[in-house]
Design brief:
heterodimer; A: about 150 residues; alpha+beta; seven-stranded antiparallel beta sheet; B: about 300 residues; 2 domains; two-stranded antiparallel sheet; 11 helices; 7 strands
Chain lengths: ~150, ~300
């Protein structure tokens, strides 16, 4: 019994530690005390980059989760699918990026969602802002994505 | 009392006939009505639009034609073009390609506005309507593109707002237009409706012909009226018949326009909740927490 409790505690403690690392992209500032995201950074003009980890989800591959995200945002939220592509981090982790477009008011926005699956977790990386901003910072966003790492 | 009897008896016959002219009509009556109306002054005043049947056999569906000799806007469209008249009310509109079912994707070749072959009457009168929901992205730009497309295909704009646009395009270009519109944005939903109005259109044409024949006969009776009272009674009946004729002409024009030009509505908005309910909701709450609003809400 003691062994079981010890094991649970050990596993719990291990889970508390960050299971990924995300260097803050150039021109962004990392925000503290983010309760909805495990990591979020923003530029001075409002472009946002965020990482969310979903621990211990039902077993499913990246393709499944990417499709679930696509369907949810397209058919239930009305986001326009612009592009869907495979991406690879600098450490060789493969994922799927779905690029959406959406008008907030009359201003066109871009919203990118990238899904990685690794170590019994789903890692969802979101970035978004006005179309103008996202296009202007596309290199930084790409660099940030490539530097994402699962520990 | 002989004179009133001469007027009243035919008048009563006509009234009965008019009352029953919603359905079929007898060939004999039609032929007799094709005789030219008298040109008396009262007749000219009371019945400015005459029916001209051109000796067509009423029972022959292929040769049904309606001609107006009046100066109404409908005249140009109806003469020699009884089924597929091109609407002429919209400004800047190209010549319509009447009653061409959108069976092919490529736009049909333009047609001249001359009399069409009698076989036209056998074509089905189909009204095409489509609604496309596109995802909400760069809606204004996309709406502009849809409007430009309509004009380039010989169609026209019906209405536009910030989130939707309705256009009409020639029926022959319907499929082509639909596919092009779908490529303007991310298509989420499409609904195409086809309404066959062939029977209603034919019925209206028959009723119109009958009423026009009745009007010719009433005009003749008006000429023969000997008293003011007789003339007033005939004129009242003429007025009623003329009203019915105008009403039917309006419906025919509407049908013809709806057949000649298909309607496409494009909505740039998320699907309404009742449509969403038919989607499968995966039991993963984090999916519901995705979205730009949450991402960009930094508080």
């Amino acid at each position: 019994m003691k062994i079981l409790i010890s094991l649970s505690l050990a596993l719990g403690l291990a889970a508390c530690g960050s299971s990924f690392s995300q260097p803050t992209p150039d021109g962004f500032v990392k925000l503290k005390k983010q309760h909805r995201y495990d990591y979020r950074a923003v530029t001075a003009d409002g472009l946002v980059y965020a990482v969310k980890e979903i621990s211990d989800p039902p077993k499913g591959d990246t393709e499944f989760w990417a499709k679930a995200v696509e369907n949810k945002l397209r058919f239930q939220a009305g986001y326009a699918l612009i592009k869907k592509q495979q991406v690879t981090t600098s450490r060789g982790l493969e994922g799927t990026q779905i690029q959406f477009g959406f008008d907030r008011g009359k201003t066109p926005h871009l919203y990118y969602v990238t899904v990685f699956t690794a170590k019994d977790s789903i890692f969802v990386i979101e970035s978004g802002g006005t179309k103008e901003l996202v296009e202007a910072h596309s290199a930084e966003l790409q660099s940030a994505l490539e530097s994402f790492r699962v520990n | 009392m002989q004179t009133p009897t001469r007027i009243v008896v035919p008048l009563l016959s006509l009234v009965f006939f008019v009352a029953s002219c919603g359905g079929g009509a007898s060939r004999g009556y039609y032929n007799s009505a094709s005789s030219p109306a008298s040109s008396g002054s009262r007749a000219a005043r009371s019945a400015p639009v005459m029916a001209s049947t051109g000796g067509d056999d009423y029972g022959d569906d292929d040769s049904v034609s309606v001609e107006f000799s009046g100066s109404s806007e409908l005249e140009a469209s109806y003469v020699g073009d009884e089924l597929g008249m091109a609407p002429s009310a919209a400004p800047g509109r190209k010549a319509a390609k009447p009653i061409t079912p959108p069976a092919t994707k490529a736009p049909a070749p333009p047609q001249t506005s001359g009399p069409k072959p009698a076989t036209t009457a056998k074509r089905p009168m189909l009204i095409y309507r489509a609604t496309i929901n596109l995802a909400v992205f760069e809606a204004r730009k996309s709406i502009d593109e849809v409007e430009t497309l309509a004009k380039s295909l010989g169609g026209y704009l019906v209405q536009r707002s910030d989130t939707s646009i309705t256009i009409r395009v020639p029926a022959g270009a319907f499929d082509n237009a639909l596919e092009t519109v779908a490529k303007v944005g991310d298509e989420l939903h499409r609904q195409v409706q086809v309404q066959d109005v062939t029977a209603e259109f034919r019925d209206l044409q028959i009723r119109l012909k009958n009423l026009q024949a009745v009007r010719v006969r009433l005009a003749a009776l008006l000429d023969r009226a000997k008293t003011v009272q007789e003339a007033l009674r005939v004129e009242r009946e003429l007025e009623r018949v003329a009203g019915n004729i105008e009403s039917i002409k309006g419906k025919l024009k509407l049908y013809s326009e709806l057949v000649a030009f298909s309607t496409i509505t494009v909505n740039f908005q998320a699907r309404p909740a009742e449509s969403i309910s038919s989607e499968v909701n995966l039991p993963f709450p984090w999916l519901g927490r995705l979205g730009l609003s949450r991402l960009l809400d930094l508080n």
